[in-house]
Design a protein that fits this description.
Layout: E1 3-14, E2 19-26, E3 31-37, H1 39-49, H2 59-70, E4 74-83, E5 86-93, E6 98-101, H3 103-113, E7 117-120, H4 121-127, E8 129-130, H5 133-140, H6 161-173, H7 178-181
Parallel strand pairs: 4-7
Antiparallel strand pairs: 1-2, 1-7, 2-3, 3-8, 4-5, 5-6
Helix pairs in contact: 1-3
């Protein structure tokens, strides 16, 4: 297993349906990995990113308290697999044990403990895709000075034309096109309404949209 560090770039809404996701960036390849979340999970992550602290401990607070009382600490947070639109994350404990987790819970842990997030290289190769710096600046207010491979010439979104075609087909199955993905108004807090469970690339952990 080869784990690649990725940059966390906040919670965003995309497409006409205003789906919520976290944007992770594979800086070396200038590729973006969206982790789709339910509106409720996105709202909690976005609020905590803004400095909000709940009056009573939330699920992630209880999890971290339990970990601290038993194994001592968390050493790593990784996204290790992606299958049929669903991501699986892993929370690595100080004693070497690994807990399978939903991406939203793993991201909350990573941000609470200020841990770097890593993604399995095969997952990035399969799911992450190229987005131009201009598009990232215009739609997400994110600005990068990328040193792109191949002299800055992008022959395909991911460098793998077949993978790109598969991704486009997956987006169409949601009723979304590439232009829909970048139609969002830019970063903003997600709704606090409970819209279901986390999603992976396209679907929830245990339910379809």
């Amino acid at each position: 297993m080869t784990l690649i560090p990725v940059e966390f770039h906040g919670v965003h809404t995309v497409g006409p349906e205003q789906f919520t996701c976290v944007l992770l960036r594979w800086a070396e390849q200038n590729r973006i990995l969206p982790i789709w979340l339910s509106p409720l999970a996105a709202a909690e992550l976005d609020a905590r990113e803004g400095g909000y602290s709940p009056r009573r401990p939330g699920t992630v607070d209880l999890l971290l308290d339990l970990i601290n009382r038993t194994t001592g600490s968390v050493t790593a947070v990784n996204i290790i697999s992606h299958f049929e639109g669903v991501f699986i994350a892993s929370i690595v404990l100080a004693d070497g044990e690994q807990l399978d987790a939903r991406p939203s819970d793993a991201l909350l842990v990573a941000r609470a403990l200020e841990l770097e997030i890593h993604v399995e290289e095969d997952v990035l190769s399969q799911v992450a895709f190229f987005v131009s710096d201009e598009v990232m600046a215009e739609y997400f207010d994110l600005h990068f000075d990328s040193d792109r491979p191949n002299g800055g010439e992008d022959l395909s979104a991911s460098g793998d034309a077949e993978a790109d075609a598969d991704f486009e087909e997956m987006m169409r199955s949601l009723g979304m096109s590439e232009s829909d993905f970048f139609r969002g108004p830019g970063p903003r807090g997600a709704s606090e309404d409970d819209g279901g469970n986390d999603t992976g690339a396209t679907r929830g952990d245990d339910e379809e949209k």
